[in-house]
Amino acid sequence: MKHTARPSRLFPACLPLLALIVLPACSKTGDAPTANQTSVTAAPPAAERYLGETPPKYTPQLFAPGLISTDAVELNSVFSPDGREFFFTRLLEGPDEQEGYPGRTRPILHHAVYENGAWSEPRPLRLFPGAPDAWAADMVVSPDGGQLYFMGAHPVDAGASRSDLNLWVSRRVDGAWAVAEPLPAPLNTEANEVYSSMVADGSLYFSSNRPGSLAQTGTDLYRAQRLADGTFGDPVHVGPPISGTHGVGDTFVAPDESYLILSSRGLGGKGGGDLFVSFRQGDGGWGAPLHLGSDINSEIHEYCPTVTPDGRYLFFSRRRSEPADSGWPGVVEGDVFWVDASVIERLRPESSRSR
User: Does the pLDDT at position 354 exceed 70?
Assistant: First the structure.
């Protein structure tokens, strides 16, 4: 898909993206990359709130064509709670040692910052120790804006020869995103932990294929309660009808935990993976996942759901692989879309509308 760039609203002094990719991210191992620094500034005015894009109605629209959604493969779409930062993932060309994937692309965190009255160019956000171009995706910002959680494929121990997929956290220190650290066990295990979602009390949902999961392929959903001392309790399995043999992919959970949106290949639908919504029931359990419909879902793969902090827009990613069943190794196209979040409420049962 070719994407037509719209007139730029970017800060004119920003460096071209190509230059940012090839410049070193930090001067020495362990330093916070300079590109991670953000200045204190007011939140964007209404006209600039979503990178200056015109909000969509009830049909999904490509987000920021030519800037965020380009001829590269993009996924993820997360605004910080104050609306001043936008995070996403772009696949960059280069060596890729992640087991089971081709050696031509790596998913790398990117972000754009609203500062000095305009949005910056999107920049790679290298947060691992030493700032390598290692796998990083699936980010979420804590409600207070002070922590950035993401999925990474980078050794959690010095000298390790292989990296499974783990959850990492970077903390904002003096206005910069600091070098990330892996979350401790039992949040991370020798299995894969991916796609976290944080709710209003700071508790963390994430997906994992750890022992005890029900999924025949893929992952199940888990929840770790935020404790009074700021740490997390042991992850608790979120059972049926959410987790099951069908497998749970990327999952967004509303801040008040009144609903969640998940991607799944095994629940039926139109394509390789579709988006479903489940609403909290009166007894505290989750309702059966409901298909978000053909306006959202297509014959290809929908994933990475999230809702903006103001609750107004649903963002998600869409990708195409060749052949269709080849998944990430065969991905040839991927973009970010957004749509009015009322498409979620239209499916809410009357019995859960009071939540």
Answer: no
